[in-house]
Amino acid sequence: MIPSLLINAVQALIGLAAGLAVGGGFVAFLTLLGILPRLIQLTKTYHLLKMYTACVITGTLFGTFLSFSGITWDQPTVLLILWGIFHGIFNGMLAAALTEVLNVFPIISKRIGMDTYLLWFLMAIVFGKIAGSLFQWLYFVK
Q1: What is the pLDDT of residue 116?
Q2: Distances (CA, A) of 140 to 107, 116, 132
């Protein structure tokens, strides 16, 4: 029988390796694709570069802390709505920056022959995202 200390050490090593892989992917996503520099360029907020860096680091550390702690956050509904709006803005900005950097939608629409239906394609993605988010929050969270 394998001692539990060895099992815990292997689990810790696997967790560390997985965290490094995900963290490396996140950093590559933000830096190599130029997501944050493009966001700073579009919003003309060069003077807030240190603030962007601090927000990314603080948000990552805070999210990691909340993921590994048993803390429950019973807050008023208004605060949770504001928190959800901030999450939506962040994810939407990252997705928009990624699609702009990679020119995803024009390439996809030309490849599948939907040049004339590009607006419908984008609206389907937007409404699908909204419906999926509402389904998750109304069905799984509440």
Answers
A1: 80
A2: 35, 37, 11
